[in-house]
Amino acid sequence: MYTAVMGFLGTVPAMPILNETIRNLYFHVTMWMAMMLLMVVNVIYGIKYLSNQKLYNDIVAEESAKIAMVFAVAGLLTGMLWANYTWGAPWVNDPQLNGVAATMLLYSAYFILRNAINDENKRGRLAAIYSIFAFIMMFVFIMVLPKMTDSLHPGKGGNPGFNKYDLDSNMRLVFYPAVIGWSLLGVWLMSLCVRIKKVEIKINN
Amino acid sequence: MNQIKNLFLHEVRLELKNKNSLTSLIVYAVSSIYITYLCYRQTIDVTTWNALYWIIMLFAATNAVAKSFLSESKGLQLYYYTLLAPRKVILAKTAYNTLLLICVGVINYICYSVLFETIISDRIQFFVGLILGSIGLSATLTLVSGIASRANNSSALIAILGFPLLLPLLLVILQFSKNAIDGLDWSLNQSNFILLTSLDGIIIILSYLLFPYLWRD
Fold first, then answer.
1. Is 0.90 surpassed by the pTM of this model?
2. How many structural domains is chain A composed of?
3. Which domain range does residue A65 map to?
4. Measured between alpha carbons, how far is B157 from A112 in angstroms, rounded to an integer?
5. Measured between beta carbons, which residues in chain A are less than 8 angstroms from residue B150?
6. A with B: how many residue pairs have Cβ under 8 Å apart?
7. Is the pLDDT score of A157 beyond 50?
């Protein structure tokens, strides 16, 4: 099923559209949505770990953060590629981009915190606390601030959203499954990593 | 409520008796300000003044709050644990750190006004921004230093964990105080003001909720 959705994404370049670069929409935006989903999973499992201290919740929290970082890097790279063609330079002084950079720093700090503690219980607890805080900050940074200031991104700070302008129903047909497809891909990768981690722990014991 | 006030007063009294951390903070801040003065030695524009002021506040804040949890020995922590509910501890510590940061902020401001002749147009707004910024900085850093004190007691960890969390807060503070220095009217700055107060509120509520999980040890 995942490969079928990936195949769907593959038919993107063949569709007739207004600007060529808008094709990147499927990759860039969908990756960010998948990342947000995984971050939400991270926070939920962090809260679960705080309430019942089962190791499984901690493993899921960690792996979802890892895959979310991978998606964030991919989203950043596709964004830079897109920006190079539409805005003229790979990195611009835009609040959304600053928010993304801050988010990467936040989650890198999350991983450093994880590495710094050896005791399993403590690690899970502290990491959960920090990740809840980090998620709220990230939400503020990515969603709230760009809407209030001027921004080059569409849909924020004075630019009309993509839906009104350029998306016709053909693209919409590809866009919505693409969102679901990338999100499911992310969840699948995460569950694979969780399974690997569980096996590793069993071997180590 | 009484307990929070008592703990807060206890910390203040401890600090006044043995002015250890206050003087070290002041020396740290003043020497950093003097170094920046030596870099420029002339009148600087508003953006730079604002940026330098808040960067030095940020580093002084990290130093100040690091001492609040790290300097407590194991015995004292156990004593606090048996005596007080954790939420009161964090509120009292946050309040104490806020007071400390406001003092450092005022001293920084005096030094900066003496060394650089940049004029601040709207002092009241600037000080309101200072108070709100200190609240936000100290709330975040108190929680982070609590986390770091549980994790091998390293002060580098506070900086690593704290700076990314402080980035959105700093952005809003910089915007607000730059508008204050430029002398913009209160109504124009209002969106920033609301943003700042709500950010402070979010941070305080979060640290209030999350701290008891940290305290169980």
1. no
2. 1
3. 2-8+33-204
4. 9
5. 122, 126
6. 74
7. no
